[in-house]
Amino acid sequence: MTIRVMIADDQAMIREAFSILLGAQPGIEVVATAVDGLEAVAKAEELRPDVIVMDIRMPGLNGIEATRLITRQADLPTRILVLTTFDLDEYVYEALRAGAAGFLLKDASGVELAEAVRVVAAGEALLSPELTKRLIAEFARLSGSAKPSAQVRIDVLTNRETEVLALVARGLSNAEIAGELVVAEQTVKTHMGSILQKLQLRDRTQAAVFAYETGLVVPGRTDL
Fold it and tell me: Hey, which of 47, 67, 79, 163 would disulfide with 98, CB 3.0 to 4.6 Å?
């Protein structure tokens, strides 16, 4: 199936360049562009793209707020791939909490951009190793802020689902989790679906955030 993509960035050169790069990739179609967050939200509701490549810093409504408004709509299947640079690390945590499914550096190649779009469209999380390290550091800084209501929600998971959630939070793919737990990859997918449903989460990226916020996974530790 063709992946329908929208590019949201206030810089015309970025919009045009990414549109050309993605348009040249098989199985990907750029259906729209947006110059700011407000236009991104409006076009997302109208066109329902599979993926939005979203800049963070935009006039009016920024990328984080636009992401939050889009991902709050349960009937909107659109996933958000946020564009970032290393000097914007302070926004990564908030973008994840807002519902972003992944991050990509603005200097990524066309091949990297296309692969990122495919990964996010498939329901996987996308965080570069560098950003993951910074994200974990941010969770460590904010440790101890777990909400009681979140702790209650995690109690509904089975022991195996809890194990899967912890491994997802550490950045493992379904295949890697299957190898770690010595189960079939389809079994992991089934557990993941159950986790998202029970915890009322949108995707595995939000599940990873949830695991850190509840203290299920503690930065620097490899046990539960």
Answer: 67
CA dihedral angle for residue 105, residue 136, residue 130, residue 199, rounded to 10 degrees: -50
Per-residue tokens: 72 = 């709050």
d(CA 188, CA 176): 10
R_g of the chain computed on alpha carbons: 17
Q: Which amino acid is at 66?
A: A
Q: Among 35, 60, 32, which residue's Cα sits nearest to residue 46?
A: 32
Among 110-119, 141-150, 181-190, the range scoring the smallest mean pLDDT is 141-150
Q: Which residue has the higher pLDDT, 224 or 193?
A: 193
Mean pLDDT of all residues in 54-83: 90
| Mean pLDDT for all residues in the chain | 83
- Where is mean pLDDT largest: 56-65, 80-89, 144-153, 197-206? 56-65
Q: Could you tell me whether strands 79-84 and 51-55 are parallel, antiparallel, or unpaired per DSSP bridges? A: parallel
Contacts 24+ apart (CB under 8 A), 122-125: 123/79, 123/203, 123/204, 124/173, 124/204, 125/101, 125/168, 125/171, 125/203, 125/204, 125/205, 125/208
- Indicate the pTM of the whole model: 0.69
pLDDT tens digits along 73-103: 878 889 999 887 755 556 777 887 788 888 8
Name the strands in the sheet holding 28-34, side by side, starting at the edge strand that comes first in the sequence.
Answer: 28-34, 3-8, 51-55, 79-84, 102-105
Which residue matches tokens 């636009």?
Answer: 66
Beta-strand relationship, 51-55 and 28-34 = unpaired
